[in-house]
Amino acid sequence: MSHANLMSNYFNPNLVYTEEDFRCHFLMRRHVFERLLRDVQQVNPYFRQKWDRAGHPSFSPQKKVIVALRMMAYGSPTDLIDETHGMSEPTCLDTLEQLCDTIV
Fold first, then answer.
1. What is the distance between the alpha carbons of residues 38 and 65, in angstroms, rounded to a whole number?
2. Interatomic CA distance for residues 78 and 93, integer angstroms
3. φ and ψ at residue 51, rounded to 5 degrees
């Protein structure tokens, strides 16, 4: 459900938030984010959409990158990420590590 909200708020054609809102929330323009997402997906399979054994989707690539960027940009603690994005502490830390390793 949080993925659906994220997509409808920031990425689908009928956006809830404007380009300027995106820039304020994520400290970058949407096209920069989309390029970063595309580039990390090409290099690191961790950032591609996966399905669990029950056939449910894992965290979306957009959510993984957003969580890692929020942790870096704002110093967001993992318990706050868990409350707002439903991602556990180990997954948050793994996502941050994967993004940093991919960029380096």
1. 11
2. 8
3. -125, 140
- Spacing of C-alpha 49 from chain mean position: 12
Domain borders along the chain are 2-103
d(CA 28, CA 32) in angstroms, rounded, equals 6
How many angstroms separate the CA atoms of 71 and 78, rounded? 8
**Predicted model pTM:** 0.81
| Exposed/middle/buried for residue 79 (C-beta within 10 Å: 0-12, 13-18, 19+) | exposed
Taking only the tens place, the pLDDT of each residue in 15-33 is 788 888 888 888 889 899 9
Nearest Cα to Cα of residue 76 among 61, 95, 57, 102: 95
Radius of gyration of the chain (CA): 13
Q: Which residue has the tokens 């990390």?
A: 40
Q: How far apart are CA 53 and CA 40, in angstroms?
A: 24
pLDDT in tens, 36-89: 999 999 999 999 988 888 888 888 899 899 889 888 887 877 767 766 677 888
